[in-house]
Amino acid sequence: MSSRLSVEERRAHLIEAAIGLAEKKGVAGVTTRDVAQAAGVSLGVVHYCFENKDALMTELVKALSMELRDSVETNETVWQGVGSGKESLQNLVRASLELLWLNIEATPERQLLTYETTTYALRESEQTPAKLAIAREQYTFNDSTVGDVLEHARDATGTRWSVPVGTLSRFTLAVIDGIVLRWLVDNDSEAVRTQLDVLAEMITTYAQ
Description:
mainly alpha, elongated, Arc Repressor Mutant, subunit A, Tetracycline Repressor, domain 2, 2 domains
């Protein structure tokens, strides 16, 4: 890696190397030495950019979450020409879920990794309670992503939610978690799309 890279560029390079390793051997099996070797830098560079493995894992989780957020936010076509009212809201929510799903479907290894980072943090927290922050960071960010989509959809269609957006986003994310985990088991994408239809309809029942 070029010595001319900024610290942020170095960090991004190391995070991507860590993701690649974790996809192959699992989060628990990745060491900072492994990451240094995969990225082609010294171990000192890794520790200069990240205090320890936990700090690196936290940023890895953020990077995976950002990929999902970008899959919805960077496609502006979904938000063009939307109408008003609950039917338009349901269509918009479903279209947003489809964008999210297309990213998930294209990256099964990364989706499995998101579950592994969660279980890694929960298991390790028994010995090191601070590790729980890794899992909480992941869910806080994803809650925010879903909440932002729901608020954007509400504003775009001139509707309002009858329950707090935070409650709705947690529910939506919990359902998506289950849908994706089942898909990783049975690889039934057709069933997923049917389930997303139902989810969009369920979400919209809380709109006025």
